[in-house]
């Protein structure tokens, strides 16, 4: 009879049982009905931070983010600590129906993840957000950060370049200046965003990055709105790219500092924000009045007639989101709580330069049919410098 080893057998069996237990715990999935109930209580972007809880959770969150648009605010807060300015980034989900009050609290803002937070903290230049929800930074190269997954894509450009982001129709391109001040267009060579094509643009009109108010892509062309109220155009379908000026009758009734260019249903729209002094606004300055958003004007480009045609309302269940360097159009029926024929706007923070008092930033909704601001909510408290812009669209967890 072979010798028995009673001590070794129990150890190996116990070790096997422990490994099986660990494996079963590691790969356990929550029931689908439980994950659905939990996700209904929090915003899609907030749920993405917890996507690693289990496989079923990750699958549900990924499908939820990919299926519906989730417009949100990318907010940069700047505070003063011992005469040192410190910047932090936050993602702020907002209830698009405006239902915020005692019975319904606004969704909680959550801090930006590590890579996005590092870029914000280093004062890197954020110059827009893409239709797929990536945040664009100019930090030597162009960095595209996914605020949900915290992944980064790098587009290598000249270190001295200044970038302009143009978007529309679900696509986005970059215009940069190289070391010898030549204009360069970067466009995606494929849908994977891994390969970019680079083409030089011959300029027949003066263009500097700091005088471009807004940019949009429409029907294969890039439209740039100049601060002097005229349009520049690049036809990317031509064999030789050329930047030239389009003569369109300017809108010179009054100076409008806030202007946005948006592609909507194959048309180029110009949106102008109207502001007026409001003594009744709850946030007042010591030596100046608060400029409150009181309305918007929307015009459609008539390139053949060389004019801007005013629009009284938006067609086809559309809504517009406008903010500095990030504006887009959505189909209202595809976005939870979104109102059709409305403009979702960001009211930028203002400061009294005599007493150095700051006023809160706001976001709100303007109805084109009712011709009035439906509601306006505070983004941040007073005393904090805030930069806010809209970001949206179908996020993925990969």
UniProtKB/TrEMBL annotation:
This is Uncharacterized protein. InterPro entries: F-box-like_dom_sf (IPR036047), F-box_dom (IPR001810), KIB1-4_b-propeller (IPR005174). It comes from Eragrostis curvula (weeping love grass). Residues 29-61 form the F-box domain. Residues 124-356 form the KIB1-4 beta-propeller domain. Residues 1-20 are annotated as: Disordered. Pfam families: Beta-prop_KIB1-4 (PF03478), F-box (PF00646). It comes from the Eukaryota.
């Amino acid at each position: 009879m072979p010798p028995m080893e009673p001590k070794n057998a129990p150890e190996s069996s116990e070790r096997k049982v422990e490994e099986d237990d660990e494996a079963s715990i590691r790969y356990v999935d929550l029931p689908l009905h439980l994950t659905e109930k939990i996700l209904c209580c929090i915003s899609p972007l907030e749920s993405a931070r917890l996507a690693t809880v289990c496989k079923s959770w990750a699958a549900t969150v990924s499908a939820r983010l990919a299926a519906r648009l989730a417009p949100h605010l990318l907010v940069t807060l700047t505070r003063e600590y011992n005469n040192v300015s410190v910047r932090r980034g936050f993602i702020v989900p907002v209830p698009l129906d405006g239902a915020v009050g005692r019975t319904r609290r606004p969704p909680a803002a959550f801090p930006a993840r590590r890579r996005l937070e590092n870029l914000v903290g280093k004062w890197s230049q954020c110059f827009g957000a893409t239709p797929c929800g990536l945040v664009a930074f100019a930090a030597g190269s162009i960095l595209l950060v996914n605020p949900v997954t915290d992944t980064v894509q790098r587009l290598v450009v000249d270190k001295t370049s200044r970038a302009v982001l143009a978007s529309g129709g679900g696509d986005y391109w970059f215009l940069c200046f190289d070391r010898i001040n030549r204009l360069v267009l970067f466009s995606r060579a494929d849908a994977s965003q891994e390969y970019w094509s680079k083409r030089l643009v011959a300029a027949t009109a003066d263009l500097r990055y700091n005088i471009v108010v807004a940019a949009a892509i429409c029907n294969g062309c890039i439209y740039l709105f100049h601060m002097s109220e005229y349009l520049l155009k690049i036809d990317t379908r031509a064999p030789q790219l050329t930047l030239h000026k389009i003569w369109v009758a300017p809108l010179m009734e009054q100076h409008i500092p806030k202007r946005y260019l948006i592609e909507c249903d194959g048309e180029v729209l110009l949106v102008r924000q109207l502001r007026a002094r409001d003594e009744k606004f709850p946030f007042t300055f010591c030596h100046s009045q608060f400029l409150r958003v009181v309305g918007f004007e929307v015009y459609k480009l008539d390139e053949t007639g060389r004019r801007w045609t005013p629009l009284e309302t938006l067609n086809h269940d559309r809504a517009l989101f406008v903010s500095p360097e990030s504006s887009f159009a959505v189909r209202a029926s595809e976005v939870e709580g979104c109102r059709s024929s409305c403009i979702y706007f960001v009211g930028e923070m203002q400061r009294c330069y005599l007493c150095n008092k700051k006023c809160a930033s706001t976001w709100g909704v303007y109805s084109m049919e009712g011709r009035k601001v439906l509601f306006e909510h505070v983004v941040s408290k007073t005393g904090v410098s805030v930069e806010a812009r809209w970001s949206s669209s179908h996020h993925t967890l990969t």
